[in-house]
Write a structure and sequence with these properties.
The protein has a 4-stranded parallel beta sheet with strand order 2-1-3-4. It has about 200 residues and is an alpha/beta fold. The chain contains 6 helices and 4 strands, in the order ααβαβαβαβα.
Length: about 200
Amino acid sequence: MSEKKHPCPDCLKCQWCSDTRCSLCLRPKKSCRRKLSQAEQIALYERLNRARNEVQIEAPARRRVLFICSDGSCLGPMAAHLTNHDFADRLQALHASLEPQGLRPQTRAVLAEIGIDASTSKSLQVSRYERDSFHIVIALDDESIEKAPLYFAGVRRYSLHFAAPDRDLADEQETLSAFCATRDALRRQLRDFFRTQ
């Protein structure tokens, strides 16, 4: 074997690299003044890739759920917020209504009681989501069960029969109690439902 310009371990035949190229490998600032052998380069590459893959392991994508109710004032928003709160690790819930009327203040109040902020939540028309994809669509009251659109093709559709709380009670405290009862019943049923999904 002919004489080498530098003692490079993976060079079988010295090609008398330019001083510029050699200075990259044998830079004085480096603690190790030798090039890695081919086996060492492969081992380093595999070690770095293994570490990067361990860091990049992603959690499985959350399934998307759409709740549909008749007016979007209580049941739909309440169900979506409860689902996002209780199953945030695996579900993303949205809500829509057949004829949006906006959230009632009692809906926001009873959700706030359990630490859920619904202050920016809006009631949206169900047609807003006609091009979106969902894994599950759930109709919450009799009107939405009967009139929910059919354009969510290939999606698992379910019905949960709930009655919206009475909004015409004379006493505000009674009205709030009715909303609390609806919230708690809805939460129980949603927990039972999603534990089996």
